[in-house]
Amino acid sequence: MNHKNEEHHINAGERKTLKKSKIVLVGFLLVIGYFLWMEHQAHVIEYLPYLLLAACVLMHVFMHRGHGHDRGPTESEKTDREE
User: For residues 80 and 73, what is the distance between their CA atoms, to the nearest angstrom?
Assistant: First the structure.
C-alpha cells in the first residue's frame, strides 16, 4: 500500500458554492431573527431592565477576578523572602 500525503484543495467551483451557501445561510438567519423579534418584541422589551442589571452583576464578578489577587506581597511576606 502506497499512501501519499495529498493535500485536499478546494477548486474554484466549490469555493463559489461555499460562498453562496454562506450568503444564503446569513440571509436565512436574518429573516428568522426578524420574525422572532417581531413576534416576541413585547416579551423581550419587558425584561430588558432585568437583563441589564444581570449583565452588570456578571461583568462585576468576572472582570474583577477575585478582588485583591493583583496586590503585591505584604510586609511579612517581604521579610520572609529576604531571609
Answer: 10
The residue to which cell 445561510 is assigned? 25
pLDDT in tens, 31-74: 999 999 899 888 888 888 999 999 999 998 888 766 665 566 66
Cα 29 to Cα 18: distance, rounded to the nearest angstrom: 16
d(CA 32, CA 25): 11
How many other CB atoms sit within 10 Å of the CB of residue 9? Answer: 6
Is the whole-model pTM more than 0.85? no
Q: For residue 80, give the C-alpha cell.
A: 520572609
Q: Give dist(CA 48, CA 57) in Å, integer.
A: 14
The grid cell for 14 is: 466549490
